[in-house]
## 1
Amino acid sequence: MQYEYDALGRLTQEQTNSLKKAYSFDATGNRTQRTTTSLTTSDATDTQSLTYASDSNRLTSVNGSTLPVDAAGNHTQINGRRFTYDSQGRLSEVYQANIYKVADYKYNALGQRIIKRSYVMGSQALAGTTTYLYDSSGKLLGQTFYDGNGQKTSGQYWFWLDSMPLAQLTANFSTLGEVSSSKLIYLHVDHLNTPRLATDSSQALLWRWNSDAYGVEAPEEDVDGDGKATTITLRFPGQIYDAQTQLSYNYHRDYNPDTGRYVQSDPIGLGGGLNTFGYVSANPLRWSDPRGLAPWDWNGRGNTGVCSYYEQRVCETTGDLSDYYKRAEDICKGEDRAVNSLLTVGIASAWIRGTTNLSESDIYNKIRAELISNDKNVSSNSGPNGVTGDMIDAYHNDVFRDVGIGPLFYGGNLWPQGIPPNPVPRSGHN
């Protein structure tokens, strides 16, 4: 893949060996055009044109077709599907051909979708019900399916390493509600924790999602060609595909990959950015938005120049303490896989919990500055070679708490002193 960006960091072009997509934007960041060009068939070009209201960022038409909105600016009709919304601006019903209800949705007090009921087209008989289960941080743990008679039939359940989906368990249930069969598959994610591949226990590839940057293109559900589809509805972080709306449910809003926008305005107003309908500032390869509120900014690990401080400390110390400072420099630079991976999980957790809205680089820079300042203080008070492991742990806990990450994601609390990968020397053994 090849990518190009404009001066504002917006994705303007993506290219594979066979396809090129180019994006244009107006002054406020609304995408005005997407041009798709085949690199194998010279005359195959498709253009999507989008227009907006002159007094807002509301999308008014796609390729000349008007997109109606309600008084709050929520899109009420897309590609033959009509949407209605509740008093909180949550998508509550979807109709096909303007008259046939195909689904309705219920939400809890936290704004999480908890029930979907789908209906048979025409007869309006209940076709089935889906219930959703979340953990305390708001991550989706699973969805359970019931038929039109209320009989539990199957479910999909996910296993997570904080914000990274690791595996999916699909279970089928007997008429007694017991598990009659199950299948565990393993998820392989990209740099944003979006599932891209799925394999079984023998490492056979079952599922693949090679979408464009905005999530256009359906996944390949029978990669191994055995005639059995593998269904995974997870999409970008915080999103799950909904077949009835043909949108991705994104916690507080619903995302339309085709336009690269939300169909509702941001419920936190300008707190998530000046364009209240836009998705991650038109840079979906760098940012994600698991809550449907504001982008998570994975913008790198900041200024590592200050890490030279630890080179000085290596020269000033001896034994285990000197060895610690050698490792501390690598960690400071983001080059220690085990320790820095834990911090990456901690950053995502902090964004989920809302304990910081700083970007990745700002968090790293703040941690570096405070850790170095604290280390200077303790070495000044205790002597260059008098710093103990307990002192190091204490100021790390304070710093991680101060930046909003929390001591849980400081590696010194996960691994004992002096036990790899923890380089902090055991107190009394310096």
Note: The first helix runs from residue 309 to 316.
## 2
Amino acid sequence: MAGQQTHSATGARFESCRQPLSGMLSNAWAYIRYFIFIARHWDIRLAAFVVYHEIKGEHKYKTRSTGIDTLHSSISAEDLQHASIYQPVSFYIAELLFQQLPFHITQTGFLDAGCGKGRTMAMAAYHGFKQIEGIDLSAAMIAHTNTAIASWASYYPHASFHAWQQNAMDVQVPLHTSVIFLFNPFDAFVMQAFVKRVAESLQQQPREMYVLYCNPLYKDIWEAVGFESIFHSQKMHYLEGVVLHFLPK
């Protein structure tokens, strides 16, 4: 009996050690694959810089979102024409943009349009936001985000999270939303429609608003409806972001 108990205890200890080890190996492999992807499509220096911040950022914000997804299996072919692949925003550039926000705006609502696996939702909670929402066209991405949300309860008890599947062209922008995050999630056609939705929300409830926009290809669409660029950063050519600001007249 004693021998059986010892064997059982040893097995339990082995299993408890094996699970964290398995997780560490899985994370390491995700970083390696992401490094290879960036090095192949851009360059090795950028890959090293980005992956360094991936490791640091995932530990800091308690999120696991490194990787690439073509989305071919999770959204329709028609929608895929207007969407980009899933690639997480660089922690480095996203942190720079969050740091530009005044404290009072963190007491309002945050919306990530094209939230992917929820990375910037966790970052928003870390920076003090309490009402945090995300939309994505991919049901698979939303499922991942909702799993992550369940794990964040102990890290961000002050925050309320909500993520749902929806086309950005159809979203009713919540009237409490005053900060929107974008990482070039869709093309100009969808961006035009989304900005119209934002403008409708601002007309219904005039308020100050900030847009944190990484890889800002369609910044001019926002500027056309009254947003002003107040911050710009670019590093290693590819890591670029702007902060757009709207103040009702």
Note: The CA atoms of residues 64 and 82 lie 26 Å apart.
## 3
Amino acid sequence: MADLREQLETALGATYRIERELGGGGMSRVFLATEAGLDRQVVIKVLPRDLAQLLNPERFEREIQIAAKLQHPHVVALLSAGQAGGVRYYVMPWIEGESLRARLAREPQPPLGETLRILRDTADGLAYAHARGIVHRDIKPENILLSGDHAVVTDFGVAKALTDAAGGGSGLTSVGLVIGTPAYMAPEQAAADPNVNAAADVYALGVIGYEMLAGEAPFQGGTPQALLAAHIAKTPVPLAERRPDLPVSLAALIDRCLAKQPEARPEAAAIVRELERLNTSAGTVVSRALPAPRFWDRRHGRVATVLVIVALAALGIRAWLGRGGSTPPAQPT
């Protein structure tokens, strides 16, 4: 049986010249390619065959089409998507630079000005998408790419497309899979709430902001189930206690993003305004000239959405919430 690269070359060879595999994970494998005719480099993300077989093609294509309409300097565009030779794929530009995850691996606490700029750019991309009714659902450092002085959000629409196409409405699919990343999932998302909205992205941005400013995420280690339970039941140490040197308003902003109740979190557009004010107060500069980056991250090895098989844990947490949540759930053993 031909390997995936050979399948791609056979199915898409007339349009794309496959250069090499960049990486991947449970939700996709990622290839660098050159688009024939235009002579531009792109990234092709391919869904695993077993996952693709679970999807409702019409639902998947509908969500991908919605995401493809996003055109913003802080959002990586979706160029095309389709199915050929039994392979379901989508195509994005290749961003030259690195992921925020790679940046944090080198320096867990970047300089304050850089942190504010990255958070501001990410919030700006989120605000644009949220204004159009699109929620990312998997904001994490791997999905924030750094190119020059700008940050861009990638994989918009993909988590939503996979969730809906697999028969779920919240991240918990009807086939027993939770789509998302436990370290960054909002409480309502972790509990498989069917009404997940833009506030879940704001929560994830708050986790990232906390991680960049404190040097570590608000909840650490353990199993995926334990992380989900922590997001629902535990309150992180206030950022001001971890970083008393930070502006009070910045620490308070991150804490509000991490509110357990979605309605208590600020909207992404309000976060942009506050971060711009903080940058001005701190004497740093947030660029308003926002040219779109051109290429894909060369070191973006962990680009795929994490596929976590924790359906039973999520359902148990949701049931606990339904009883009122008077006591925290027991830690998994």
Note: The longest helix spans residues 112-131.
